[in-house]
Amino acid sequence: MIRRAALWGAMLLVLAWSLGPFLWQGLTSLKPTGELSRLPPILPTAPTLDHYRGVFEGRPFARYLLNSAAVAGGTTLLALAVGSLAAFALARLPVPGRRLILGLFLSITMFPPIATVSPLYLGVRALGLRDTLFALIVVDTTFALPLAVWVLTGFFREIPEDLHRAARVDGCTPFQAFRRVHLPLAAPGLFATGILVFIAAWNELLFALTFTATDRSRTVPVALALFPGLHEVPWGEIAAASVIVTIPLVVLVLLFQRRIVSGLLSGAVK
Amino acid sequence: MRPVLAREERAGPAFVTPALALIAGVALVPMLGAFWLSLHREMPVFRISRFVGLDNFAFLLRDPRFLKSLGNTAYLTFLGVAIETALGLGLALLLHRSFPGRGLARAALLVPWAVPTVVSGRLWEWILNPSYGILNHVLGTDLNWLGHPSLAIHAVLLADVWKTTPFAALLLLAGLQVVPRDLLQAARVDGAGAARTFFHVTLPFLRPALLVVLLFRTLDSFRIFDVVYVLTGGGPANTTETLSVYAYKLTFSTLDFGYGSAVAAVTFLCVLGLSLVYVRLLVGRRA
Amino acid sequence: MNPTRRPTVRARAVLPAVLLLACGGEEARDAGVQGAGTVVFKHFKVPGGGEPLERLLRRFEAENPGVRVVNETLPASSDRQHQFYVTNLEAGSSDFDVFALDVIWVPEFRRAGWLAEVGDLLSEADWDDVLPGPRAAVTWQARRYAIPWYVDGGVLYWREDLLRKHGLAPPRTLEELARTTRTVLDREGDPGLAGFVWQGRQYEGLVCVALEFITARGGAILEGNRAALARPEAVAALAFLRRLVDEGLSPPMVTSADEEATRNLFAAGRAVFLRNWPYAWNTFQREGSPVRGKVGVSAIPPFAGGRSASTLGGWQIGVNRASRRLEPARRLARFFGRPDVQKTLALEAGFKPARRSVYRDPELAREQPFVVRLEALLEGAVPRPVTPFYPMISQTLQAAFSAIVAGLQEPEAALRSAAIQIDHVLELEEG
Fold first, then answer.
1. How many Cβ atoms from other residues are within 10 Å of residue B21's Cβ?
2. Among C66, C178, C182, C400, which is 20 to 30 Å from B222 by CA?
3. Does residue B128 share a domain with residue B13?
4. Quick check: B22 and A37 CB within 8 A?
């Protein structure tokens, strides 16, 4: 009996710890501006949707959301395509210098992004790709590849080698074997990886900030970072925007939490 | 079998090439570019551009601001990772049991990690506000969380740990799945208490996952930028300035591209060194 | 976020014409005809809904047939704008032709060769009409590199009602300000009431505040090409700031506070004195503001025997030297320097014009009396060191000042060390 209670208590603590700050941000977003600077009223006395209106007024927030979706989606597709191919090869095919390659992938995650921002920016400019989503997708994909390859390699290794041999004996080229046998079987892994990459790309800030110059290609994290004017920080609007941005992520996570966990599971244990 | 093998031998490298090409072009080349820059005194605004060899690195070793940022970074990293791992372990043990609502708890746990750092930065900035922040209100204090030299770095630590603990918890949860149930049963039958079971049965199996957590979290934490920049900008008086923040300011505020790249290069080398240590531990244990 | 947010124009409201960019004026670009083409104007968000600026640009287009202006807004943060301009201009970009510069960037950009000369766009009489502060900021060796657009200067706000209640007059010196604060705090006995709030966070705003106090003591940051920071005047000024915190005259939160944090506190009626920029005035007079009608404003008082000071802020219009449409770009720059244009922005968006004659306008006196009142203050506004190395110096200053107000270092030690670093940087120029 006590155990049950303790367990429930602990769970509530977890929920409070994880979601509490968001709840507070949500409450803030509903308070009229005058109330923001006063603390005794914790709950809004006259809840208003003004801040939510304000978020969309005077800035193309919907456009930002669209841009973010495009970048995250594009990155996910590209990373899965390139990453699954590489992961399959590293798991099942003879690749000279496999250890070195895996080490190289790992070392990419060690690069401080600051170091690469300036040279990349100049490169992007030189190619005339400044202020396009394409440049952002390519860069985000590259930095998502290590994680993608790492997790997917684990999944591909799980597929029995016999299946691969059987397919090859039947006359499939390695690519055909990949496409017809391995990919379908690794689907859960692809899904999990896709979600991880999507979230990472959606949240990416530094490169998005550097490569996008105008509203045309601005993404949501950039918009959030640039919200305040030179003065008059609109706390209410920032809170509202944060809520708007968080909710789809929360929904995504709620729906797919099992897959995300199993994705990390598989990669981690290998 | 030979034709089949030959195909495989060609396919292998071919399949890996696209990924390698991206890595080489987009990550490796710029990084090498940054290393090259670090060997120069490069201040485009003043049209200064000349090769100075290792001068930047020599200065770096004597630069008090660099040493301070290194110290801040090390403090945040080691303390942060320790807390995250401990908390993560606790959470993993909790979520390993089945109980109704476990799915919800897991999902809730993931949320802080899934949200953009900007959002979490603003969130905490608002919570830690000395005048209107809910934290001071709840605690009944009026502590200057982000403005007091000793408090600020801990405020940053709090925000960072909140955001990244889920990742550790998940990896450790995965690690817990590997612990053979029959061994746990045996221990219980033998009358071992929870603590003894944990240390003698669970922990040995958890080692690989623990080391993976330590490795990845240390690598990430050492390069911390977003949360610091949003919460304190490196202040007050550079007490929360980390290596990445310093490199950023050097590059974009002071416009000293050469020296900024040198700081970034040293950050990379530190991270590389740390990871080699961890890998040795990881591989060493396995062998 | 935005730790190095600089105090300048009021926030908010993106110009709807940003959408113009999406549709682009590609056909009109580079028409190749002298004086024609599409000019790209880059700037931060303008207060007042952006419509005043929009209308002005349409007026410009009407006066200059064949020229089209495309508006591009930049992130509001001064820091981010600086990052943007540096990265682009250094790469020789001609993506934009006219842009708004913070007053502290002009020497830096001039030295880097990014600004086209614009001295000939205004007559000598016109240049004389410009306030001395911004005029000096855009001039180098008798040449001009930007058109002063609008000006800003730090001011002191106080609660008239509280002072009157305790029979106190508005302070004429900073020492008096400290005494008055002490008296009000003691007599009010309200733990939720703060005394004197100012910006003490480690960012550019702190340099503005510190400069005002240093000047008020008769000191300076630079003298000639050497740091004057370690002199007794500056040390005393910074020590005074620290004492304000130590003695509880300023709440601890000032050490992490920026313009907004302090303004919010004062606007909620929880502070007696506030140092901030003129933009805050309108927010205090809004409907529902707890301090509406209770706020007094003046220049920052001097120390006894010193000089009243206000740090110069504001923005200038620069022409990109690499622009491929120099002729129409220069016309746009000249347009912004006209008194009637500056008056429109003053009337409709509360800009403080850079040209003196605008302040004499009766209509402006009627509609925006506060703006007109500021003229005397802006006339004497003190600039931060006018040197291409200012951004570097600023980093050193910010760290030193922050260390002092946060109690980490003694003023003398911190300022001496900062002076050494600054001298080292300035020596580069001579090399």
1. 12
2. C400
3. no
4. no
